[in-house]
Amino acid sequence: FLARHHGIGIGIKVPTVWSRFMWTGSGTPNLRLMYQLLADMRAGRALPTHRELNLSIDLEASALRASDLAAPFRIAALLHADPPGKFSWSNERSFASDCDMVLRIQSGTSHLG
User: Fold this and answer.
1) How far apart are alpha carbons 64 and 56 in whole angstroms?
2) Nearest 5°: phi and psi at 88?
3) Residues 38, 48, 77, 71, Cα dihedral to 10°
4) Cα–Cα distance between 35 and 44 in angstroms, integer?
5) φ/ψ of residue 24, rounded to 5
6) 75 φ/ψ angles, rounded to the nearest 5 degrees
7) Going residue by residue through the chain (113 aa), what tens digit of pLDDT does each one get?
8) φ, ψ for residue 44, nearest 5 deg
9) pLDDT score for 106
């Protein structure tokens, strides 16, 4: 997970220009744009304004993913969402077991074999 930059970013510092932006969670990140925004963030260059983010859901998604990639730490996590009404106690136990396994693998305490 971590090698592919998956999981949950921890310690994200949202750029000041985006600090009050209301993220919609829509759109699809554009890889080239996302990496350009990440480079701009790291170099302190100008970033898209709220207006520009509001005009393009894909720009918004790219900016949000660039912010996530800038996180100094990550927690390896696999999140799963069942359709509404499909969750059961057995699914909850399975999810807890999966989370426990991910945490043990992450911390190096898993005994596989």
Assistant:
1) 12
2) -135, 170
3) 50
4) 14
5) -95, -25
6) -110, 125
7) 677 777 788 888 889 999 899 999 889 999 999 999 999 999 999 999 999 999 999 999 999 999 989 988 888 877 666 665 555 544 445 555 555 555 554 444 444 43
8) 75, 20
9) 46
Eight-state DSSP code of residue 83: P
Q: What is the residue type of 44? A: G
Within 15-88, where are the H helices? Answer: 31-43, 50-55, 57-69
**Partners of 10 in the β-ladder:** 73
**Count of beta carbons in the 10 Å neighbourhood of residue 18:** 18
The CA-to-CA distance between both ends of the chain, in Å, stands at 21
As given in the structure block, the two tokens for residue 88 are 């059961």
For 27, other C-beta atoms within 10 Å of its C-beta total 17
Contact assessment for residue 6 and residue 38, using Cβ atoms and an 8 Å cutoff = no
Q: What angle (nearest 5°) sits at the alpha carbon of residue 46, between those of residues 20 and 22?
A: 20
Q: 3-state class of 74 per DSSP?
A: strand
How many residues are there in the chain?
Answer: 113
